[in-house]
């Protein structure tokens, strides 16, 4: 799709930045809910693409966050975190916050919250 957009841009004599091209691509939403000590969704499966993570805090009693890591990588190392998947601000009880658009390649990922000691075996499978 990006190639088609770039070709059209060249034919009509204008250039699109990669960021503008990405905005033209469809972005999906992955909604996850945190309750005290866990995510209500333990395993998800989505198609390869670009998504915004929408994290809801349902009665945790304090702020929560969101971390996404490719499966098999050390989750304790921040260098392995997919930073665009972080919520743009902490999620207070009773609220929802979103991440930046995050492009997911085929594979498996794990997600967790370091502030709401959730299990670290929640799985996101991208087909």
UniProtKB/TrEMBL annotation:
Family matches, as Gene3D superfamilies: Cupredoxins - blue copper proteins
Residues annotated as transmembrane: none
Domain of life: Bacteria
Domain called EfeO-type cupredoxin-like: residue spans: 7-126
Signal peptide, first to last residue: 1-20
Keyword tRNA-binding on entry: no
Protein name: EfeO-type cupredoxin-like domain-containing protein
């Amino acid at each position: 799709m990006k190639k088609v957009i770039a070709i059209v841009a060249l034919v009509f004599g204008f250039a699109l930045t990669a960021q503008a091209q990405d905005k033209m691509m469809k972005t999906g939403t992955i909604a996850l809910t945190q309750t005290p000590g866990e995510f209500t969704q333990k395993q998800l499966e989505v198609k390869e693409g670009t998504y915004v993570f929408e994290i809801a805090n349902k009665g945790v009693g304090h702020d929560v966050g969101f971390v996404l890591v490719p499966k098999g990588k050390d989750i304790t190392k921040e260098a392995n975190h997919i930073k665009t998947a972080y919520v743009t601000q902490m999620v207070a009880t009773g609220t929802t916050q979103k991440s930046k658009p995050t492009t997911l390649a085929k594979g498996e990922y794990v997600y967790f919250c370091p502030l709401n000691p959730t299990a670290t075996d929640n799985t996101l499978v991208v087909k």
